Amino acid sequence: MTLVIEVISATDTYQLRHQVLRPNQTLKDCKYPLDFEELSLHLGAFVNNKLISVGSFYYERNDAFSDNDQYRLRGMATNPEYRSLGAGSKIMQHAIDNLGERNSDVLWCNARITVSDFYKKLGMKEHGEVFEIEPIGPHKLMYVRFK
């Protein structure tokens, strides 16, 4: 089984975002404000031409960091039937390589507490205290620096 990472459109991410991240909300809730900005990057992992994992990366500042060129990860989702393939890790590594080439300073995300260990394994660090995002649940700010 070959896993392929490709750049995809924002709309290609919506079904997995809905299925995995926001099943109790509408598909419309899976459209994020920066989806169609020029510097946004959407990546998908495919197995046998089937989209099994997605991640979106936005040029967006977080005041917790003084760095100029910041990217934010949002909407990371993997079909539960394919979680053991490492698709999310490969998307993240592809993004880290790509954003490093763009001379970005930092990649950050609001990670659900339930998956913070996944991000730690990829070299991301925690910043600050646990906070709540309604109606999703507890999160932790996580980041990785490129420089």
Please give a structural write-up:
- By secondary structure, the chain is α+β, with helices and mostly antiparallel strands.
- It has one domain: Aminopeptidase (3-Layer(aba) Sandwich), CATH 3.40.630.
- Helix content is 22%, strand content 38%.
- The protein is built from three helices and seven strands.
- It has helices at residues 10-21, 87-101, 116-121, and strands at 3-7, 41-47, 50-59, 70-78, 106-112, 125-133, 137-145.
- A seven-stranded mixed beta sheet has the order 1-2-3-4-5-7-6.
- The radius of gyration is 14 Å and the shape is globular.
- 28% of the residues are buried.
- The mean pLDDT is 93.
List the helices and strands and how they pair.
Elements (H helix, E strand, L loop, with lengths): L2 E5 L2 H12 L19 E7 L2 E10 L10 E9 L8 H15 L4 E7 L3 H6 L3 E9 L3 E9 L2
What are the main properties of this structure?
Aminopeptidase; 147 residues; alpha+beta
- Nearest-integer average pLDDT: 93
Shape: globular
Unreliable stretches (pLDDT < 50, length at least 5) are none
What name is given to the CATH topology?
Aminopeptidase
Q: Please count the helical segments.
A: 3
Biggest beta sheet attributes? 7 strands, mixed
Strand order of the largest sheet: 1-2-3-4-5-7-6
Number of domains: 1
Report a brief summary of the structure.
The chain is an alpha+beta fold.
